[in-house]
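Annotated sample (chain length 310).
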Amino acid sequence: MYSEKINELFSEQLSAWELARLNYRGLSKVRTRKLSFDGFEVLVQFNPARIISSSAKVDVRSIEERPCFLCSGNRPKEQTGIPLDDDMVILVNPFPIFRRHLTIPCESHTGQRIFNNFSLMLSLSRTMHLYTVFYNGPQSGASAPDHLHFQAGNIGFMPIEMDFTEGRHSRLVLSNPGLEIWKWEGYLRGIITLRGNDAGKLAGVFGKLFESLARRQPERPEPMMNILSGYSSDEWTIHIFPRKQHRPRQFFSSGDDRLLVSPAAVDLGGVLITPREEDYEKITGEDVIDIFSQVCFNDTEIEALVSEII
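Output written by the structure step:
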């Protein structure tokens, strides 16, 4: 049902909303190249429309001084949506990465927090099973850290989805009825993956993981993380990326090594967004290794986390 409604929403919005129409049309001109590593690839995408998100100021003062663009009263007059239960609405994202890119904000202005909203994310994933739902934490790539929201994009776009299916870099560490826990190795990014059909068990393990991360980052509003969630064949697959840093040093550099790269869920899923052409042209595999090592947990740190939650 929602798949049909979303298709209708896209048709209506791309007809009535010029900004969205131009940016989705512009996806045909987006350039992509591959960087190969040991048994996997990272795609680099040149997408100038993403400059607003990649360079967004998310410090407390900047957030307080600007109107919240996810609140209904501040959205563009052309933007319409599909109401969902639990005070949510499905919107077309006017600055797309995917050919179908959605933003799903809460209608109430409440902070970007996942701890009490993980089950909501699972529900969204099941409702929108043709999409991968993703969450960027308030200090992990969310350009609206003051307003609870998820995003979603059409399945099969990010390399991590196929890489997990092929299983070369993920290892099963626990298997119970309704729940599996996997950890990734040799993938440049430390990842813990939960898979299963028991939403309660998945939420329980996520709660333990959240608490373990919170002990490591007690000064933050919530531990840094990005999450990708999909639902297929009556089970969820949730990839969790614990974070150590929001942006790499290259983002702030004023020298030749400057790269306007601000990794969030899609980037860690294997599609690195570069809104400037110069960065798209010059970024190397060594740069990607360095950037991921700065912002993500390494394999040893993931091993310690997994040991705690099982």
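Annotation: The radius of gyration is 18 Å.
Annotation: The CA atoms of residues 179 and 201 lie 7 Å apart.
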